Amino acid sequence: MFYRPENGHGLPHNPFNALITPRPIAWVSTQDQDGNANLAPYSFFNGTAYVPPQVMFASTGTKEDQTNAKDTLANIRATGVFCINIVEQAMTDAMNISTEGYAREVDEFERAGLTAAQCETITCPRLADAPASMECQVSDILQMKGANNYVIHGEVTGIHMRDNCIVEGIFDVTTFRPLARLGYRDYSVVDNTFTLARPDD
User: Boundaries of each Flavin reductase like domain copy (predicted)?
Assistant: First the structure.
């Protein structure tokens, strides 16, 4: 099968997201200028550089009570900071609760029964019980083609790792089974790994 996106795919559901899988989920926490906390998941997310450590995630769409943005992006524009929290399988239901388009003054930490903690290097909350959290200072916000499509780049200024996720000096993802986004409404978890040496090692 071949199709041009501008002509449509003819399938019951758009297959695009299913082609880019599995995708890690950035559970992004922010705070507006009035101190209202926000927590929302984004699955167009990845690391972009080692030194200094940098990350990116993409925000698409908007909300009725925001201008050309979702709450996360509006808060980032206002404050210049955000925190990416890693999602473990045990937090699947709470993560799903935070996907709802609540009014901007609603605190998703409270709505999902989660505990917020203050970050160390930025003025923003983080998820206290996350396997890992990355405190980020915005370095760039790029507008892409289409309505309300943005890529947010940030430099990681502080990293929290839960102690029980560190095994023999290595951050072991199998200790918490990170949640990954597939296509449609499907998800997966990472529950096994293997090591592959490069030919020039």
Answer: 18-173
